[in-house]
Write a structure and sequence with these properties.
588 residues; BirA Bifunctional Protein, domain 2; Gyrase A, domain 2; 27% helix
């Protein structure tokens, strides 16, 4: 045996025990006599005391990140030297023998608790070193606990784990596919799956009834803090089920995952319609940990003479305690609002005059006293607050104020606990295209709300049609989404016709699924969420790269392996491919 236990598990009650440990030198203190090491392994750190007269003078050569094997005894630290910052701070190991298992060059950056002050490209180039940091070790253990809990919960709920293929036909999923050339069929390509969507519906036709998997998905889309090219997705589908059934199953699985990490199961998941979320928070993934909700000021300014407020919608937010914001700060908010699509942003400071809150702004002179009083009351504004108002199209006003609300009030991701929320009753269509056809808000197999089917007829208000789609939101992050699927051919053809998808196009795009639906497809519904996002929230990280072992940079590069990079000409020839400069016309 190379070791008898782990460094980070030693405690005061272990004093007197003989141990064999192995790990890396996290730090060393050499004063010319006795040498002190912080020995680190996957469980944590313990201090090792090495006397050169016992282990040999070569101990003075040992540097940071050398790999050592230690034999010795655990003893209580002398009075005054206990380290309360370490779980092992009451004890140390007196080395009786020391073996160098491997030497190390000095690392290119300190492997401290956080790597925030280290260039991210450098960290990712040496990710194997970055992973030694305690916070990265903890994040990956959180991820493992989440995966185990999800699998356990789904198995207990009688779901069957099934792996779906990685090499598939290209299907429209809303983002660009990553494609793979076929050697056996030159000029033809596979696509990597953006999700297992169509295959999990085929499993329902196949009679499996309850499917799940933790699936790797790939989408060629712009990266951001909560998005990577490749990500892990909890994926589930149920036959003979409706939205309530799916939300119950997912809520149980997510609750089990949270409990596995935090030790406590969250309470019931609250619920909000899409319309309410947009009106109150200006977002379909609202962060409900703080106030600053959007307020409809239409009644306040119904009879206003101020032309800027004579608009389809006038909405505002109150920013507590920001009434003393500088003019440059306020001007920056105005520019921010314009960049988001607003025609402008009206701001007002709230002051106290003779015990009464009053408004201070260049536009106040255009408002009546009754309007000013009603505005203060509607927003619940108090002296010292800042009022922000956007007028214009309702969708624009909601969006702009929703973003400003997050800019000004969103707490750090790890504050306020995990606030889970189901957002339901999404619109089936998000807009009407110039050709008069509706633009789908989801994939074309999403079931419309049964109460709104009549509006699908000619002359109906298509933008008012709700879908049986639902999102799970946590702390302002969309964890995932799902829907009840269309299984009846007549309704599916009706939706295709509205979208301008003819029979030939439908067969070309979704033929293998539509063919399967001819053989008795059951009613079914499903859901999927990003595991990376849930783990990041549980770990208190703002970026999912911190909970992925080997992520890509914001530009999609992998500094560790050098991907993406050129490919050998011989491989290209074997695949029947040639590289040409962007914009160069192909040879004929």
């Amino acid at each position: 045996m190379m070791r008898t236990g782990n460094a980070g598990t030693l405690r005061g009650e272990d004093a007197g025990a003989a141990v064999m440990l192995a790990g890396w030198v996290a730090a060393r203190r050499d004063h010319g006599g006795v040498v002190f090491f912080d020995l680190r392994d996957g469980s944590g750190i313990v201090q090792v005391v090495a006397d050169p007269e016992v282990v040999g003078e070569a101990v003075h050569r040992i540097g940071r990140e050398w790999v050592l094997r230690i034999e010795g005894s655990v003893r209580a630290r002398p009075d005054g030297t206990v380290n309360p910052e370490l779980p092992t701070g009451e004890v140390e190991v007196a080395a009786a023998a020391l073996e160098v298992l491997n030497e190390s060059e000095p690392p290119p950056f300190p492997l401290t608790e956080r790597g925030d002050d280290v260039d991210e490209v450098l960290r990712l180039r040496h990710r194997y070193l970055d992973l030694r940091r305690p916070s990265m070790q903890a994040n990956l253990r959180v991820r493992a606990a989440v995966n185990q809990a999800l699998r356990r919960s789904m198995s207990e709920q009688d779901f069957v784990e099934v792996e779906t293929p990685m090499l598939i036909a290209s299907t429209p999923e809303g983002a660009r596919d990553f494609v793979v050339p076929s050697r056996l069929s030159p000029g033809e390509f596979y696509a990597l799956p953006q999700s297992p969507q169509l295959f999990k519906q085929l499993l329902m036709v196949g009679g499996l009834e309850r499917y799940f998997q933790i699936a790797r998905c790939l989408r060629d889309e712009d990266l951001r803090a909560d998005r990577q090219f490749e990500f892990m997705q909890y994926d589930a589908e149920m036959s003979f089920a409706d939205a309530e059934d799916v939300m119950a199953v997912v809520g149980e699985a997510v609750g089990a995952a949270i409990e596995a990490v935090t030790g406590a199961r969250p309470g019931p998941v609250s619920r909000m319609t899409w319309h309410e979320a947009m009106e109150r928070f200006g977002s379909d993934k609202p962060d409900v940990r703080f106030g600053m909700e959007l307020v409809d000021l239409g009644e306040v300014f119904a009879q206003t003479g101020f032309r800027a407020f004579q608009a389809p919608a006038v909405k505002g937010i109150c920013v507590p305690g920001e009434g003393e914001a500088s003019r440059s700060t306020v001007d920056a908010l105005v520019e921010r609002a314009k960049s988001l699509g607003a025609a402008g942003l009206v701001w007002m400071r709230v002051r106290e005059v003779e015990g009464t809150p009053v408004l201070e702004s260049p536009v106040v002179k255009f408002l009546s006293e009754a309007e000013q009083t009603a505005l203060i009351a509607a927003l619940g504004a108090a002296p010292g607050d800042l009022v922000l108002i956007v007028a214009g199209e309702r969708r624009v006003a909601n969006h702009v104020l929703g973003v400003l609300r997050l800019d000004l009030g969103r707490p750090p991701v790890n504050e306020g606990g995990l606030q889970l929320l189901w957002v339901v009753d999404f619109p089936l269509f998000e807009a009407i295209a110039p050709d008069g056809r509706p633009v789908p808000a989801h994939h074309p197999f999403t079931m419309p709300h049964p109460d709104d089917l009549a509006m699908l007829d000619e002359g109906g208000d298509l933008l008012a049609v709700r879908s049986q789609a639902y999102d799970l939101v946590c702390n302002g992050w969309e964890l995932g989404s799902g829907s009840v699927r269309i299984h009846a051919p007549a309704l599916q053809q009706r939706i295709f016709a509205l979208l301008g998808i003819g029979a030939e196009e439908a067969q070309a795009r979704f033929g293998f699924l539509l063919d399967a639906f001819r053989f008795g497809a059951p009613p079914h519904a499903g859901f999927a969420f990003g595991i990376d996002r849930l783990v990041a929230l549980l770990a208190g990280e703002e970026n999912i790269r911190e909970v992925i072992a080997f992520p890509k940079t914001q530009s999609g590069a992998d500094p560790l392996t050098g991907a993406p990079g050129p490919i050998d000409p011989g491989q290209l020839a074997e695949l029947g491919l040639a590289i040409r400069a962007r914009g160069t016309p192909p040879r004929r």
